[in-house]
């Protein structure tokens, strides 16, 4: 199977976690896009969605799926999203598509986080994929200097402005054994909006696309 076929398989498998008549949390990226396309097939059975990016909002709307403002809803049973890396404790590294902050907000509201990935994303130690950090533009140099003090190599992601009007610094050279501690330390740097470690709020279920089918890891 190709990587895209594995992504499509997990996107479809996640539909089983969507309760009838609910509002569903929808993530961002190529894997989440397959979930959105599968969701379109059952759109008559849900009220609609909340979404972590303008790109996903546009895709949901193109399928005729109603999109709600997160502030108008009281409960969110499930959030479905991809990841750039996930470890065996179901801690994730996210934000390759620059949507990390809205993803973290929706994940905080959701009762269950269902992570959908092809098997290339499962790692023993997070950090080979550069860790994205969303930063207020005027704090760029300050945040970069503080990241160096933590042992990382910061790189400004040129030409990218997030949906929130901020910039992204990608942190290279990390081998993240203490993910919750690093998530907290990075968030304490003044000027950081959030970082792409999802260690405090991990996934509840991983649907992993493999050559032998979709594996469920809890
Ligand atoms: O900002 C983007 C998100 O964190 C994505 O969930 C992540 O980058 C994975 O995307 P993809 O499914 O395209 O690999």
UniProtKB/TrEMBL annotation:
The gene is rpiA. The active site is at residue 103. Gene3D superfamilies: 3.30.70.260, 3.40.50.1360. It comes from Deefgea chitinilytica. Belongs to the ribose 5-phosphate isomerase family. Coiled coil: none annotated. Substrate binds at residues 28-31, 81-84, 94-97, 121. PANTHER family: RIBOSE-5-PHOSPHATE ISOMERASE. This is Ribose-5-phosphate isomerase A. Its EC number is 5.3.1.6. It catalyses: aldehydo-D-ribose 5-phosphate = D-ribulose 5-phosphate. It is an enzyme of class 5 (isomerase).
């Amino acid at each position: 199977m190709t990587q895209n076929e594995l992504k499509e398989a997990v996107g479809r498998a996640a539909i089983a976690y969507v309760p009838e008549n609910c509002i569903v949390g929808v993530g961002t990226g190529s894997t989440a896009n397959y979930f959105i396309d599968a969701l379109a097939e059952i759109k008559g059975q849900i009220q609609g969605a909340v979404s972590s990016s303008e790109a996903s909002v546009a895709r949901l709307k193109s399928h005729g799926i109603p999109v709600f403002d997160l502030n108008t809803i009281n409960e969110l049973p499930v959030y479905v999203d991809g990841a750039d890396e996930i470890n065996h404790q179901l801690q994730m590294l996210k934000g390759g598509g620059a949507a990390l902050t809205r993803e973290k907000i929706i994940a905080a509201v959701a009762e269950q986080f269902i992570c959908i990935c092809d098997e290339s994303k499962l790692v023993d130690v997070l950090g080979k994929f550069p860790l994205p950090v969303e930063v207020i533009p005027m704090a760029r140099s300050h945040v970069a200097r503080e990241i160096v003090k933590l042992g990382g190599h910061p790189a400004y992601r040129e030409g990218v402005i997030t949906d929130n009007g901020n910039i992204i610094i990608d942190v290279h050279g990390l081998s993240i054994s203490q993910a919750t501690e690093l998530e907290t330390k990075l968030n304490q740097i003044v000027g950081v909006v959030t970082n792409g470690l999802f260690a405090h709020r991990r996934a509840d279920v991983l649907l992993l696309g493999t050559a032998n089918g979709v594996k469920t890891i809890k």
